[in-house]
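Pilot study result, target chain (448 residues):
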Amino acid sequence: MFEKILIANRGEIALRIIRTCREMGIKTVAVYSSADRESLHVRFADEAVCIGPAASKDSYLNIPRIMAACEITNADAVHPGYGFLAENADFAEVCSSYNIKFIGPSPNQIRQMGDKITAKETMIKAGVPVVPGSDGLLKDVKHAKTVAKEIGFPVMLKATAGGGGKGMRIVWEEDTLEENWEMARKEAMASFGNDGIYVEKFIEEPRHIEFQIAGDQFGNVVHLSERDCSIQRRHQKLVEECPSPFMTPELREKMGEAAILAGKSINYEGVGTVEFLVDKYRNFYFMEMNTRIQVEHPVTEEVIDHDLIKEQIKIAAGEKISGKNYYPQVHAMECRINAEDPQNGFRPSPGKILSFHSSKGHGVRVDTHVYAGYTIPPYYDSMIAKLICRAPTREECITKMERALDEFIIEGVKTTVPFHQKLMKDPDFRAGNFHTGFINTFKFKDEE
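Predicted structure:
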């Protein structure tokens, strides 16, 4: 087992990893930017190293500075968390060259799944259903039009190096394809330094359902059931839950088998997520694979009573996984609490938190790195907390979430708490009648 793990991340996920490491008797090193000097992950790690100024490119994305921190602290492993360098194959390669274990898949596995076109080709070979679309990258807009006509409008233009909704455009008819093509390419280049675009059939009113998987160094791959992530805005998730209200036992078996097949096709090592789109007829299609821990991993942890960070660390240390699939025994739901103004297009709301009180009680969990007096910096993701509730049934879980949201007090900045409070009361949401475009029709405003 590792003696000391450097956490190449910040915020709540860094704190989350520190907690598990402490329970496992592993020392931790926090790295931080000058903007995060007062963050809790800095305070609770055994050691902390400042790696640069506020800008991510000069700190959390600066590989030489992170490796220097590993060297001066004698860390023998690196946990990348999510975001930043978590799916950066070059970083995993550099760690390996310094004989430091990257807690995650191999550089080759990251590359195979990191590029959407390569991932899709791999899934086709493995026999996993994929959304109909172009064979590889599009050469030009003329090529895009040809493929779009073949598969039929509406279509979705997607950046091959994409993520977080960047470089994606829905095209409803041929007349608007060219302008969307240009916008998608420009956004992809600006966000990822790669303007490669492919096209897929746009699945109308789909569910976004993902399967958590785990694979060890001995070729074993299992699934840990699903999460429904259909409540999202601009392709970014707001609420996740397990089990999905849309799921049937038969569909879970099929999708679980496909997720395992996806993992085995690349000899996957570590904890990862296979994401699918599911249409209203319960046909499912591979969308992408995230080769890292997910923001919403606590949902799975609560449903199967299993520490996924510990699982990651044990797999990286060469231990075998149990070899059995896990199925939901209770219901769990996560609401992302972002420092955003939901009444103004979810505009970021950085600033100083004047008052903070998190929810408590049986079946309620809060993962956060903020506190009263903490200043939310404007340089990073706006998520400041995750509120997770667990109950025997979905109805009881929603009722518990309502109570927990009412107790959640954050003053000084705008947050998404009022949005979630209204969502929990929505009859369609409560009935499980929603899809990835649900928020576009959801009318949010403060009660008069």
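One observation from the pilot: Residues 249-265 form the longest helix (17 residues). A full batch analysis is planned for the follow-on phase.
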